[in-house]
Amino acid sequence: MLKQNTPLFLPKLFDHIAECLANFLEKLGIKNQKLPLGFTFSFPCQQTKLDESILVSWTKGFKSHGVEGRDVVSLLRKAIKKRGDFDIDIVAVINDTVGTMMTCGYDDHHCEIGLIVGTGTNACYMEEMRHLELVEGDEGRMCVNMEWGAFGDDGALDDLRTDFDREIDAGSLNPGKQLFEKMISGMYMGELVRLILVKMAKEDLAFKGHTTPDLLTTGHFQTSFVSAIENDKFARRLHKMVRRLVPDCDVRFLRSEDGSGKGAAMVTAVAYRLATQHAERQRVLDALRLSREQLLEVKRRMGEEINRGLAKESHDQATVKMLPTYVRSTPDGTEHGDFLALDLGGTNFRVLLVRVRGGKRRSVEMHNKIYAIPQEAMQGTGEELFDHIVHCIADFLEYMGMKGASLPLGFTFSFPCHQNKLDQGILLKWTKGFKATGCEGEDVVSLLKDAIHRREEFDLDVVAVVNDTVGTMMTCGYEDPLCEVGLIVGTGTNACYMEEMQNVELVEGDEGRMCVNMEWGAFGDHGELDDFSTEFDRAVDDCANNPGKQRYEKMISGMYLGEIVRNILLEFTAKGLLFRGKLSERLKTRGIFETKFLSQIESDRLALRQVRSILQHLGLTSSTCDDSILVKEVCSVVARRAAQLCGAGLAAVVDKIRQNRNLSELKITVGVDGTLYKLHPHFSSIMHETVRDLAPQCEVTFLQSEDGSGKGAALITAVACRIRDAGQR
């Protein structure tokens, strides 16, 4: 067989086709227009895409040399180009069978099979993609051109074939090929009848044993004679046989009107529409796809903001605040005792009792209870919020049988705070939907103590105010001494790391290191991310409780990703690119597309029907398989960008540590917590890959934290108590 790239002359057949096309365009007066063209080529072809079709073998008596094994679209394009008097955009090459299905499918949306029984015979149908091993991807369906005329070429029909069938095959242009077609199609049926009649006449079973020269001449008994004699009974017999063989299928037959012409035009029109829509969708999504150069620029800008936040002179203007935490030591194994920990970082609040055992058999034992923070407490007064917190503490102490106990307490308070010492935290601003009045600018430890005194039931020794990111680092540091970075990617996002004291200009002293709470969610609040931000990011920001704030967080964290996806889906639907242009009222509702849906939809184990069930939950009951595929792509693009942006920020952090220590190579561990990182099927791997790529001189290990905000707060408290007790001796 000739290979596709073998240099050959251009077959005359395609010169002739190009000439016919030129004459047709001339006649219609449209020769100067570049129109999309659909090419019905009704021979067995191998297709790798819609506008490429490699002829496998000629059938139906065609024998044009130099075509088999070559792309017929390319041959036609070359013939047109050689003429040079017109131009055509060949969008689709299809088989006449596919054209038939498409033509009928225009009138009946249940039409998913095409059948040709004419000069030749063939069938096509819509097959599930998961069964098509020759094509990548498992989602949706694709029309398969069966080329069933060759059925039997392997001997599968030998026990059904007669001497007449074998005689026809022997006298054909392609003996041993298309055996099913030779038993069925119009090209051979008349000759088959002629051979039977000749044999019957010779055996005196017909025409009183007489024959005529016409009857003895090959090809003289035409298939049209059979149709005239049979009075078109073929179709009725076919329908009856199909219904008898598949009684469980309700099969309707719809006759096509010019399937090979109209069908080709329809496939072309559909392909043209889909190509245009695909290009528009990709144009929108391309704004969310970040190049390596863009990610390196994000890393560079994050590095600049880190330095601005550390420096006393530029700290106030910096978006990344680089707040000192006064955490300067990690556990050494001698800590012991019972500690309370409070964890306030989102819509839930936890109280924990943590028992730390030191020495050779060191261990950490925890008991905790979760309490909800009502919306009215989140957005009411500070007194109401802290009274609710103290009520939860009292309930927990009673639950643990420790009513009235006074224990050292670590308070994980996961909001931007300014600390002048370990047991003081001045709230700079609320994030994550909190808006309680009278708290910003105040010391949260004092607010907590005031609420405890108002209750007059117990007293607590608040030893440390801890950010959940710092707690995460400390928890992982208990397991791995190389852990010097903490990262949270959940409802919100933040990072902390051990910085050299000489660089922490807000705190006196140059010796040793201190953990710095970056509060990196605010990166971009002065426009640093504007050239990477999209209209969808701006829409989410405009409708948030804190417009213009926490811009980096809004592009990364779990609180916002679902909302970005929802806005993209709204845009696509409004443009008619999704859900047939029909919006559901539920999809118009802010927050309805939860970030957990991204994790579910992107799960490799999730079938499309489950994606559709999520869409049905959103009121999109008539969503199609294609809609599900597109929604999955949108989720993938948004989550990938989030993971890459997070990775670019983290690359800046680890490279900063490496440069601080004048190392050519740095080996470091990052302690990570947060539902997005833990539950999304691809977020962590994309983030790891980005860090490796953007900080190649750093060997970064990621250690997943187990309860950093609770256990970490208790460990920081335990370390602080150890140091305090040692100082009192």
Automatic annotation (TrEMBL):
GO cellular component: cytosol; mitochondrial outer membrane
Pathway membership: Carbohydrate metabolism; hexose metabolism; Carbohydrate degradation; glycolysis; D-glyceraldehyde 3-phosphate and glycerone phosphate from D-glucose: step 1/4
GO-annotated molecular function: ATP binding; D-glucose binding; fructokinase activity; glucokinase activity
Subcellular location, principal: cytoplasm
Gene3D superfamilies: 3.30.420.40, 3.40.367.20
Keywords: Acetylation, Allosteric enzyme, ATP-binding, Cytoplasm, Glycolysis, Kinase, Membrane, Mitochondrion, Mitochondrion outer membrane, Nucleotide-binding, Repeat, Transferase
Name this polypeptide is given: Hexokinase-2
Organismal lineage: Eukaryota, Metazoa, Chordata, Craniata, Vertebrata
Underlying gene: HK2
